[in-house]
Structure formats: C-alpha cells, structure tokens
TrEMBL record:
Entry protein name: Pseudouridylate synthase TRUB1
Family, as annotated: Belongs to the pseudouridine synthase TruB family.
Known function: Pseudouridine synthase that catalyzes pseudouridylation of mRNAs and tRNAs. Mediates pseudouridylation of mRNAs with the consensus sequence 5'-GUUCNANNC-3', harboring a stem-loop structure. Constitutes the major pseudouridine synthase acting on mRNAs. Also catalyzes pseudouridylation of some tRNAs, including synthesis of pseudouridine(55) from uracil-55, in the psi GC loop of a subset of tRNAs. Promotes the processing of pri-let-7 microRNAs (pri-miRNAs) independently of its RNA pseudouridylate synthase activity.
Region (Disordered): 49-71
Enzyme class: isomerase
Cellular component terms per the entry's GO annotation: cytosol; nucleus
Residues of the tRNA pseudouridylate synthase B C-terminal domain: 210-246
GO biological process: mRNA processing; mRNA pseudouridine synthesis; tRNA modification
Molecular-function GO term, any one: tRNA pseudouridine(55) synthase activity
Cell compartment(s), UniProt: Cytoplasm, Cytosol; Nucleus
Length: 261
C-alpha cells in the first residue's frame, strides 16, 4: 500500500521516514469536547497509522517514533486553532505561548459558574436588565491595554506539579493565583442580544477569556460566564487559512502546510 505526497506515490516505509524527519510548525482545528492533549494524541495516532505502525500508543513517550507538542492549551469546551510543533519545531512552541492570539467569545449575562464557562455549575444569578450595549462598550475600555488579571481556579496552571483543575475535581482546596499582568491589544463588542453578547478579543500570552468575561459581568453590577469560545488566530496561524481538520490529518496535508524551523 502506498501513500501520496503531491503527485508521487510513496511506500509506507518511506512515509514513516518522512514523518520522523518533519521539523516545524503547523496548525490543526480542535473541536469542542476533547482536551488539547486528546487532540494531539489523536493526531499522532492518525499519522503513525498512515505510516504503517500498528496500533500505536502515543501516550508512551519512550516508544515514540516522532516528537510532537502543542503551543497553548485550549479548554475542552473551546474550539479553534491549535498550533502543533513536530521534531525541532517543538522548541519553537514557547513563542506560541507568549505570542498574539485572537478569540471570538459568546458570553451570557446573569449567571456565574464555578469554571467561568458553560461546563461548570451555576453559583450565582443576578439581574442584568439594567445592562445596556453602551454600558458594555464603555466598560470594555477598562479591559484594553496592559491590565492585571487573576487566572481562573479551573485552569491548566499548576500547584506542586498538578493542574489546578485536577486538584479541584479531586476535592482539594485551591487558592486563586495572584493577579498578573496581561495585554489586550483589541477588544470589541460584536453583538449584544441580552443575555448573550459576543466579543472579538486579540490578546497576548497568559490571558484568560473566561476571567475577562467574569470580570466584565462584575464590572456591570451583574455576573457572566463564557457560553462559547473559538480561537481564530494564534501567531501567524489562522482558523480559516491554516487549521487542518481531522480529515486532513495526513502526511500530505502537513507537508503542504508545515512552516519549517
């Protein structure tokens, strides 16, 4: 059986060699539901299966025949661009963590949740009838530029080597991390249909959209949580132009979209 690269038929053994020699960055589309790690493991499995490795176990690092990582975790409930580094490209992922990102977020006024998004339990309900579109646009100005932000308790941040979200789910008491500086380059209100509103956000590394929406709800004398979140851009990679969907998780498509080291 042979794979295809461009117009050239390539034997399976050659496919594995090409896979192992890949070095660079590319982007995939992460759908709602799986974690970023789940997506990465499914991608590895699809590529190794195409290259002829039987029933690969991508979670066993010692037996890895390819080196791969992602730059910037997306919440399981979020979708959009996930940048992947392969080979020496994994060394470039740190720039993805600190670089510019863009999101479309749908928030819901009147309800706050423990996770700050729709996956959590409602912990507070407040009236939002007094909130106007003009009020929201005015408050957004105070969340633009260099600001201080407290990360969510349910996050990928770690304490003693374990993620805060895992500690919380296991019943451990977790204290909030201190506020830290983050940058918001652009923040606009795209739609206002109470209780729902849509934001277009361009931000730097370490920024949490969930915290922004939670803080915005409080600033409006109400409360809010993220109902839907899509990452539309990370670094030079955009959702429309660069993100490979599952049916495109092949060596051929990756070779066509790979940005070399």
């Amino acid at each position: 059986m042979a794979g295809r690269i461009g117009n050239t038929a390539v034997p399976i053994g050659s496919s594995l060699s090409k896979l192992q020699s890949l070095n660079g960055l590319f982007a995939v589309y992460k759908k709602q539901g799986p974690t970023s790690a789940d997506v990465l493991n499914a991608l590895k499995e699809a590529l190794l299966k195409e290259a002829g490795e039987r029933r690969p176990n991508p979670r066993k690092r010692k037996k890895q025949s390819m080196k791969m990582g992602h730059g910037g975790t997306l919440d399981s409930a979020a979708s959009g661009v996930l940048v992947v580094g392969v080979g020496n490209g994994t060394k470039m992922l740190s720039t993805m963590l600190t670089g510019s990102k863009r999101y479309i977020a749908v928030g819901q006024l009147g309800k706050a949740t423990d996770t700050l998004d729709a996956t959590g339990s409602v912990i507070l309900e407040k009236d939002f009838g007094h909130v106007t579109e003009l009020d929201m646009e005015e408050k957004l100005k105070s969340f633009t530029g260099d600001i201080m932000q407290v990360p969510p308790l349910y996050s990928a941040l770690k304490k003693d080597g374990q993620r805060l979200s895992v500690l919380l789910k296991n019943g451990h008491k977790v204290e909030a991390k201190p506020a830290r500086p983050v940058t918001v380059y652009k923040l606009t209100l795209q739609e206002f249909k109470p209780p729902l509103f849509t934001l277009d956000i361009e931000c730097g590394g370490g920024f949490y959209v969930r915290s922004l929406v939670d803080d915005l709800g409080k600033a409006l004398s109400s409360c809010a949580h993220v109902k839907e979140l899509i990452r539309t851009k990370q670094g030079q990679f955009t959702l429309e132009e660069h993100a490979l969907h599952e049916e495109q998780w092949t060596l051929e498509h990756i070779l066509q979209s790979l940005q070399p080291c």
